[in-house]
Every structure is written in structure tokens, then in C-alpha cells.
Write a structure and sequence with these properties.
The strands form two sheets. This protein has a two-stranded antiparallel sheet. Strands 2-3 form a two-stranded antiparallel ribbon. The protein has one domain. Strand 2 (50-52) and strand 3 (55-57) form a beta hairpin. It is mainly alpha-helical. The longest helix has 42 residues, at 68-109. The chain is globular, with a radius of gyration of 21 Å. The protein starts with a helix and ends in a 6-residue tail after the last helix. Helix 3 packs across helix 10 and helix 7 crosses helix 9. It has helices at residues 5-32, 39-43, 68-109, 115-120, 132-140, 144-172, 177-203, 209-229, 231-245, 247-259, and strands spanning 36-38, 50-52, 55-57, 60-62. Residues 261-265 have low confidence and may be disordered.
Length: 265
């Protein structure tokens, strides 16, 4: 296909735009992940009390699961149009920014609070006494184990996702987008769901093996269901990208990503 300056400009913008969505959602998921919410309460249903590995457990999950599915689907789109090297670049960059974010948060929570700030925020909305600095530190300062677990699990999950996606892409060609996207996500998140919990709460914490298996299983069930439900969004994204780049150029870019290494943009 002859060189087209307009296409090259659009391709670079598309890559930067997708990387921006990927990076932003990954960082947000890490920041809000400290909150644990009840899925049953959200849906207005009684606790499920599932029997997993010898004990009962409800669907309580990290708020980070709200944003991670966006990361998964954008990762597949980047892989589709920019290849394995494109996904690896943004994954390594994101892991570095996650580490930097934790360092910045740790430094910020170590700063001495201003006395007037403590006094102005000495009570919550119900009039109860509150230590705003303690609450700030408790929310934003996650432990070293969680940081290491998050980064390791993120990188392992992304590398597995891109590998399985590329393997399926070579065997399905341009057909069956849902198969390579959903298949790669289901496989990679099977590992990711357990690695982060094992490192953060078993290696660095005081959880036992049963707790790791229970929470990991619940997280994986959620991620699997969401991956299936988000399949139509993947097709919509492909339609929009085809319209933006032009169908012929979009297919050329996807075929190039599948057969050759991703070139720098």
C-alpha cells in the first residue's frame, strides 16, 4: 500500500489515544482498588454464601474491577492493530507509572498535615469525630505487597494475553474477533486473578491458601462474565476504527500487525 501521510497521522493518533485509555484506566483501577464493595448489595439481592473450598463466601470485590475490563478490551484492540510489540510497550510503560504512582503516594502521605486542615475536617457529615489525615493515609497508602503483587500480576496477565491473542489471530485470520479477544482475556485473567492475591496477601500478608483460592475464584468469575458481556463493545470499536482510518487502511494495519513486528510511532 502506498505511503499516505494522512493515514500515518491517523495511525499515530489512534495509537496514542488507545494507550491513553489503557494507561488512565489502569492507574484509576490501582487507586480505587483499596475499596471493597458488595456485589449483592449493589444488585439488591441477599448474600449468596457460596461454598468455595470448604467455607462460605459472598461476592465482595475490589472497586478496581470497574476499570480493569476497559484495560483488557483496549489491550486486545491495540494488539489487533499494532501487534504484540505495541501491547508490550504500553504494558511496560504502565507498570513503570504504577510504581511511580505508589512512590508519589507514599511521599505524599508522609507529609505533615496542616493544623487548620485537621480542624476544618475534624468531623464527618454525620458529626462524628474524624481524623482526616489518618483516613487519607489509610485510603491511599497501600502496602508494598499490594504494589508488588499488582505490578507482577499486571505484567504476567498482559504478556499472557498478548501471546494467546496473537496465537489465536494467526489461526483465525481476520475472522472470529470475539474468540481471540475473549479467549485471551479468559486465559490471562485466570493467572492474574490469583497472582496478585497470592503475592499481596499470602506472601506479604497473613491469608491462608483457602482465602487466596476463594477470593481469586470470585474475581475470576467476575472478569470472565464481564469479558463475555463486553464482546459487542469490541465489534463497535472495530467499526469506529475502520470508519476513522478507512476500511482498506484499517485492514492493512491489522494484517501488518498480525504478520510483522510493530514499528515505532
Amino acid at each position: 500500500m502506498p505511503h499516505n501521510p494522512t493515514f500515518e497521522r491517523k495511525k499515530q493518533f489512534l495509537f496514542l489515544f488507545l494507550c491513553g485509555i489503557f494507561l488512565t484506566n489502569a492507574l484509576i483501577a490501582e487507586i480505587i482498588g483499596v475499596k471493597i464493595f458488595s456485589v449483592e448489595s449493589l444488585l439488591g439481592i441477599p448474600p449468596m454464601q457460596l461454598s468455595l473450598f470448604g467455607s462460605k463466601m459472598d461476592f465482595n470485590m475490589s472497586a478496581g474491577v470497574v476499570n480493569w475490563p476497559v484495560v483488557f478490551i483496549v489491550s486486545d484492540i491495540i494488539n489487533e492493530y499494532f501487534g504484540r510489540k505495541g501491547v508490550k510497550r504500553i504494558s511496560y510503560l504502565t507498570a513503570g507509572f504504577i510504581a511511580y504512582m505508589y512512590i508519589a503516594i507514599y511521599a505524599t502521605t508522609s507529609l505533615p498535615p496542616a493544623q487548620f486542615w485537621l480542624e476544618v475536617n475534624s468531623k464527618d457529615s454525620l458529626g462524628n469525630a474524624m481524623n482526616i489525615d489518618g483516613a487519607f493515609n489509610q485510603i491511599f497508602r497501600q502496602g508494598l505487597g499490594i504494589m508488588i503483587g499488582s505490578i507482577v500480576a499486571f505484567l504476567i496477565g498482559q504478556l499472557l494475553d498478548v501471546t494467546v491473542f496473537s496465537w489465536l489471530r494467526r489461526r483465525t485470520g481476520s475472522k472470529h474477533i470475539w474468540l481471540r479477544a475473549t479467549g485471551s482475556t479468559l486465559f490471562s485473567q485466570l493467572i492474574d486473578s490469583f497472582v496478585v492475591i497470592f503475592i499481596a496477601f499470602y506472601v506479604f500478608g497473613n491469608w491462608n491458601t483457602t482465602q487466596v483460592l476463594q477470593v481469586g475464584t470470585i474475581n475470576y468469575i467476575y472478569k470472565g462474565v464481564v469479558a463475555l458481556l463486553m464482546t459487542p463493545i469490541l465489534y463497535i470499536a472495530h467499526y469506529l476504527i475502520d470508519s476513522y482510518l478507512g476500511k482498506e487502511y484499517a485492514h492493512h494495519l491489522a494484517n501488518e500487525a498480525a504478520s510483522t513486528s510493530f514499528t515505532a510511532v
